[in-house]
Amino acid sequence: MTSAEELKEKLSLYLSSLSDSAQQLLLRTLEKSAENGKMDPSSQLILDALKHVLKADEEEQPEQTVALDPLLKEAFFAPAKPFIAPLNLASKSEGRVSPDSLDAIWRWIKRDIAEPDQLALINKEAVAPDKAVIAKQADQLRALLLPKISKTIKIMLKELAGEQKMANQLGSSLVYKDLMDFMAMKEKTATLQSFLKHIDQQISSWESPKGEEVYAQIRKFVQQFPMQTAWLFSGLTSKLSEPKLLVQLSAKLAGSEDALQIGATVYAPAITQILVEMEAHIFQFKAKSATGKELDSALQSLAEWRKLIRALETELEIPVQCPWAKSLSAMKTEMSDMLEKEISTSAGLIRKALRAPKEGTAEVADENLLQDATRAAQIFHHAERMKDSLAINEIVRKVRKELDQTFEVLTKSLVERTRHATGADVEICKTLGDAAVIFATHLVDEDYANSFQRQLKAAATSSELKETA
User: Fold this and answer.
1) What residues contact 338, with CB distance under 8 A and at least 6 apart?
2) What does the DSSP 8-state code read for residue 110?
3) I need a labelling partner for 202 at 20 to 30 A (CA). Which of 49, 282, 369, 418 fits?
4) Measured distance CA(35)–CA(446) in Å, rounded
């Protein structure tokens, strides 16, 4: 082997030992030098060797395969996409399908409906599967499976308690009802699907030129297909920028803002759909607020619930004798009770999380306490914004007063403790300070939080100067 070949081999071995990021950085640097005309023979030799190593590595990499199952599932249920609710519903609303129902129906299809060859296709893996091919395969699966599903349902329903048996097989009566909607979808939405595709941008106002144009089309559609309004409102939801537009639409179509009058028309499903989603958000908040890991979902439900209640209360007149008023009252009571319980301990939790240590003892940052206090601050933030819609004015006022007094004292204390911190207390004060800034964002506002953060930073700098003096 010549010395030149030995050099190339050693160079390749060395380049192969570098991390992927180091190889890519070196490649970019050398290629930039080449573009600028600054390459010498040694650099060119390294660039050639590096390209050879990268090419060899690429050839050695086995082609990555992906499972067809989730892709086929998504394509199989593609006709349902406009009608899928943003979260799992607690009760059925016509033309509205829960996301988890599709998972349950797909499992049932694979377990009880699909033939071995169909199951083999679903369980296959492929390298870079083509979307068009997947869509075609899903169409073929629907053509084969839907008649069998229909036959299975008919046979089951002839049996004693057949509907309950179907619900048991699928996992719940709600999944069964969603399956029935999916089976009826083609017949009920053939014209609607095409209509929805022509609404190619979000509507933010019915008074805008686009809004007026779409409203005229909607009015014409409901006059022709009055029994499809539940499906229409469901399909329109994702095309509206905020919930109040759906309420406004039902009122405009009915020619009245009186909930009793709207409830007597074919436009009632718009309001029913909102009430069902409100119920689902309460259920989700209750289920997910207990764990810190799912708190974001719980808080999102609070925010969405507030938008929905405001949409109904600002856009409609809802007499007490209206059945919707009773549903709203029950939900508001339940939400008020939950939030009152949640926020009543907010000040105490924040006080415990940020309290100063006893004289002569070290600073302590209890992660569990900090998480609980963060959760309390976030929930209080939402509760305060919802107080006008709920019976929590008094508890919010009381907690707000306690929080203001507590937080002002704690923040001043924390700035001073940060300024005088030494040793391990420096890092602990930083942890407490970071948490306090988050609390400030939720309990006051971002300007206050930013100002407080600057104070902490200045105090920390002062502490560092003392350490190095």
Assistant:
1) 282, 285, 286
2) I
3) 282
4) 46
Nearest-angstrom CA–CA distance, 180 and 232: 17
Instruction: Using alpha carbons, select from 87, 106, 107 the residue that is nearest to residue 97.
Output: 87
Reply yes or no on whether the pLDDT at 465 is more than 70: no
Mean pLDDT of 390-401: 93
Q: Which one, of 276, 119, 104, lies nearest residue 179 by Cα?
A: 104
Q: How far is CA 365 from CA 32, 211, 370, 438, 456, in A?
A: 49, 53, 7, 15, 16
| Confidence band for 462, pLDDT divided at 50, 70 and 90 | confident
* 337: Cβ contacts below 8 Å, ≥ 6 apart: none
Return the SS3 of 84. strand
Rounded to whole angstroms, how far apart are CA atoms 174 and 168? 11
Q: Could you tell me if residue 161 is left (phi over 0), alpha (psi between -120 and 50 degrees) or otherwise beta? A: left
**C-alpha–C-alpha distance, residues 433 and 354, integer Å:** 9
Phi then psi for residue 93, to 5 deg, are: -130, 125
Q: Using the predicted structure, report yes or no on whether residue 183 has a pLDDT greater than 70.
A: yes
In angstroms, rounded to a whole number, what is the distance separating the alpha carbons of residues 303 and 389?
13
393: helix, coil or strand?
A: helix
State the pLDDT at residue 389: 87
Residue carrying the six token digits 């609303």: 93
Q: Which tokens sit at 234?
A: 């469901």
Q: Is the dihedral of CA 145, 151, 155, 157 positive or negative?
A: positive
Mean pLDDT of 262-280: 97
Q: Could you give the angle at which helices 367-386 and 424-443 cross, rounded to 10 degrees?
A: 10
DSSP-derived secondary structure letter, 90: S
- CA atoms of 101 and 89, how far apart (whole Å): 10
Category of 128 on φ-ψ map: left (φ > 0), alpha (ψ -120 to 50) or beta:
left
Beta bridge partners, 350, equal none
What's the token pair of residue 52? 């050879």
C-alpha distance from residue 383 to each of 44, 177, 334 (Å): 65, 34, 13
SS3 state of residue 361? coil
The tens digit of pLDDT for each residue in 372-394 reads: 999 999 999 999 999 988 989 99
State mean pLDDT over 275-300.
88
